[in-house]
Amino acid sequence: MRKRGVIGAEVEIRVPFFDVDSINVVWHGHYVKYLEQARCELLDALGYNYDAMRASGYVWPVIDLHLRYAQPAQFGQRLVVRAELVEWEHRLKINYLILDADSGRRLTRATSEQVAVCLRTREMQLASPSALKDAVQRQLQSRDTPA
């Protein structure tokens, strides 16, 4: 069983024609951009998107990416892509699920890892900067505070 994330976000995508190959299924490389769309939604929900990362003095390159394809997505299919934050203390680790929007059937699962790199020195950080940790903490606290 994969570890569940503490914060999640999802996007819905309809597979466009230009993402499919000659047998009408999504070419494997296009799944990465679907993950990126969900990751951006998650980072926006945290209040620490790519613009905020740069403003805090860091960039976050992807250093590892794993995908497991269970079923192919096809032209016109509605997909739900879910991103869940599972680690943030020393790296940004996100788990993903790509589901068929109509049936809920799992098509793909994936994991990405990113590390903070200081813009000024270009050095990889061994711990996540406080800007990310604070953003995660604020989001967790806002969920626990009754409305």
TrEMBL record:
Enzyme class: hydrolase
Keywords of this entry: Hydrolase
A Pfam family assignment: 4HBT_2
Record keyword Cell membrane present: no
Matching InterPro entries: 4-hydroxybenzoyl-CoA_TE, HotDog_dom_sf, YbgC/YbaW
GO molecular function: fatty acyl-CoA hydrolase activity
Coiled-coil region(s): none
The EC number(s) this enzyme carries: 3.1.2.-, 3.1.-.-
Signal peptide coordinates: none
Family from the record: Belongs to the 4-hydroxybenzoyl-CoA thioesterase family.
Name assigned to this protein: Esterase
